Amino acid sequence: MFAEQIEQQTSQVSTAIIKGIIKRIIFQKDDFHILSFMAEKTKEPITIVGDFFNVAPEDDLTVWGEWESHPKFGHQLKVSKWERPLPSTMEQIEKYLASGHIKGIGPVKAARIVREFGERTLDVIQTGPDVLGNIKGINREQAQHIHQSIVERMEEQHLLLNLLHLGFSASMAKRAYKHFKSKTVDIVKTNPYRLTEVNLFGFHKADQIASHLGLPTDSSERIQAAILHVTEETTKSTGHCWLTRDEILEEALKLLNKNSNVSWESAEKELTYLSTLDSQLVQMGEQIYPGRLFRAESIVANRISSLTSSVHTNRHFPLHRMIELYEKRSKIKLAKNQREAVEAIFQTNLLILTGGPGTGKTQTTRAIIDIFEQVNANAKIVLSAPTGRASRRMSEVTGREAGTIHSLLKINKSGKPTYDTNNPLPCDLLVIDESSMLDISLARRVFESISDDTKILLVGDIDQLPSVGPGNVLNDLINAGVSTVRLKEIFRQGKESQIVINAHRINQGKNIDIAVNKDDFYFIAKEDPEEIAQLILRSVRRLLQKGMTVEEIQILCPMKKGPVGTTNLNRLIQSIVNPKMYGASELMSGNEVFRSGDKVIQTKNNYGKQVFNGDVGIVQNIGSFYDEDEGREVMSLTAIFNGETVRYQENELGQLSLAYAVTVHKSQGSEYEAVIMPVTTQHYVMLARNLLYTAVTRAKKMVILVGTQKALHLAIRNNKISQRNTGLIHKIVTKG
Ligand SMILES: Nc1ncnc2c1ncn2[C@@H]1O[C@H](COP(=O)(O)OP(=O)(O)OP(=O)(O)O)[C@@H](O)[C@H]1O
């Protein structure tokens, strides 16, 4: 059987298959091993490299791999698969027991055990520790240990034999085992979709395994997995917290029926079943929530009810006098609604401060913090924001320390925070800036982490795009009646620019105003998308000639696709600002080429590297370097993010993208000296007032819009801010 498998696989892939014995572990880090291996046939020692687990010298292995020639270490076999044949003869079993794998057994005891049970030794020991009771020199505790070790060994063996050929790596098999224990192989073979529960595989990979195993395409397991997959993906891509039954069924059937014929009724039956379990999906009438979003909404709503009902308003200090003193100290006369905000924070535990650019949100926040400290010199005030860029900016404008919510709550890789209901954040006033970016899951973490004695000030601009993740938290809180101060007076307008004026005009649905005597807001009329792209290129060149740097100029696009989408514009801009240089190293990832000097954006949170989704950096170097951990030369790219050098290996480049042009969504919470934006009906589906408003408010010194008046008007008129399906308002209202 074993040999048959080898034959089968030899014919499918052109890899070397070698049987032999591990002689020495040359290097090991986690699962990665470099081993000296004695090939059975040639009796020659070779070096094998790859992911292994629980291996030790003298282990018999069969390895599959490809030969590679390493500049430093010479000829070595890169192992993609391996198996450890089960010991079957008495001699093999004795050698195996004595090999050092099983604590408490050396050669003498191994020989005694095998003498007692013969070729059935491993089977017998698996039945229980008591069978070892008569073996001289083995006490109860050791017997238990030997039994346990053998059981685990056999399970691991079983795992490797059954999973590696299905496309699992050794470490994936180990992760699956950690979760499903002895049931792992059974689960994979009967319902591989369960691997999606532990985020080991997505639906598509699980479906491939199921198809490889010949499992039926209309099984309940497959239909349920597809339903859960589309619910998760659709809420992620649309920002909705719930979807209708019909939406889910339509999408699930599209996915399922690529290679089968599942009926609407069968899918509906499975959806009903999943909803009645009330865990992965929760049904409220026609609305279906992913369970975790439903729970997040309920928790936020509960916490808000509790926070707002626990406020102590009996003040023993002369607030009006304190505001006057603040005005004297800061030489700023607060406007009426700025004063209201200062007063409100002492009357409620949860306050929202919103307003457009230049309306004095930062100034009001400063006043609140200052006066709060005057009232209580020992008050612990914490400043935070959803992204690294927003928190850095907050720190600059307030002159105080500010960090991301993730770092504040000490949220670990698996999303678990150190501060939560049982261990609340020690804090009297928590200020969160850019709070329009809070999605419902992050809001849950924030509200769960604070006690009823903490006040929260949420600062943000509700007219910006909503959070990237599901939910519309800031808007929902305002609409649910949470105390809100809305700043309307524009303080910057007089002395400053058309940018602020036009941002407010856009927000009010009015056309932009181009003042001839100002040179910070341009609209360049162009119809043809190719010409728009060329004009954008020319504008970039012009700004560079004027002395701006690549980092200061940002192209913001509604979409990624098309001639004026980020993908194409990045390619074009790169070709002029950072063209291919003869002899210089480059690295490819997907359709993108990275060169030293390129502006790049991180596209997912990486806690290990401390670089987060949306962080922008500059590539510093591309080349090979000696990786101590791997003990070999690897190609890598280093980039500078916020003054820190970060290294990416070739297989990590999927986390980076060129960033000369980014989507408006990605720009939330950032500011740039100059913003250039294509405005064309090619991006019709995305043209909305809040998108244009968000883009324009990112600019500090200059905005250049290139496109058609028609597209611009469409965007300004479209204030049907794409509705998000959420239930937070309802949940808060019903609590009240
Ligand atoms: N009451 C006031 N009197 C005079 N100037 C003020 C007042 N409030 C704010 N300002 C000034 O107006 C300008 C804009 O204020 P601020 O930076 O607080 O606005 P903002 O809403 O935070 O803007 P943005 O969202 O664009 O950062 C600042 O120069 C600030 O000092």
TrEMBL record:
Keyword entries, A-Z: ATP-binding, DNA-binding, Helicase, Hydrolase, Isomerase, Nucleotide-binding
Residue ranges of every copy of the UvrD-like helicase C-terminal domain listed in the record: 658-706
One term of GO molecular function: single-stranded DNA helicase activity
Residues noted as binding ATP in the record, renumbered to the chain: 358-362
InterPro entries assigned: Coronavir_polyprotein_1ab, P-loop_NTPase, RecD2, RecD2-like_HHH, RecD2_N_OB, RecD2_SH13, RuvA_2-like, UvrD-like_helicase_C
Any one GO CC term of the record: exodeoxyribonuclease V complex
Catalytic activity, as annotated: ATP + H2O = ADP + phosphate + H(+)
Domain called ATP-dependent RecD2 DNA helicase-like helix-hairpin-helix: residue spans: 155-242
Domain ATP-dependent RecD2 DNA helicase OB-fold: 18-87
Record CDD domains: DEXSc_RecD-like, SF1_C_RecD
Domain ATP-dependent RecD2 DNA helicase SH3: from-to ranges: 569-630
E.C. code: 5.6.2.3
SUPFAM superfamilies: P-loop containing nucleoside triphosphate hydrolases, RuvA domain 2-like
One Pfam family linked to the record: SH3_13
Any GO BP annotation: DNA recombination
Primary enzyme class: isomerase
Family listed: Belongs to the RecD family. RecD2 subfamily.
Described function: DNA-dependent ATPase and ATP-dependent 5'-3' DNA helicase. Has no activity on blunt DNA or DNA with 3'-overhangs, requires at least 10 bases of 5'-ssDNA for helicase activity.
Entry-linked PANTHER family: DNA HELICASE B (PTHR43788:SF6), DNA2/NAM7 HELICASE FAMILY MEMBER (PTHR43788)
Protein name: ATP-dependent RecD2 DNA helicase
Source species: Heliorestis convoluta
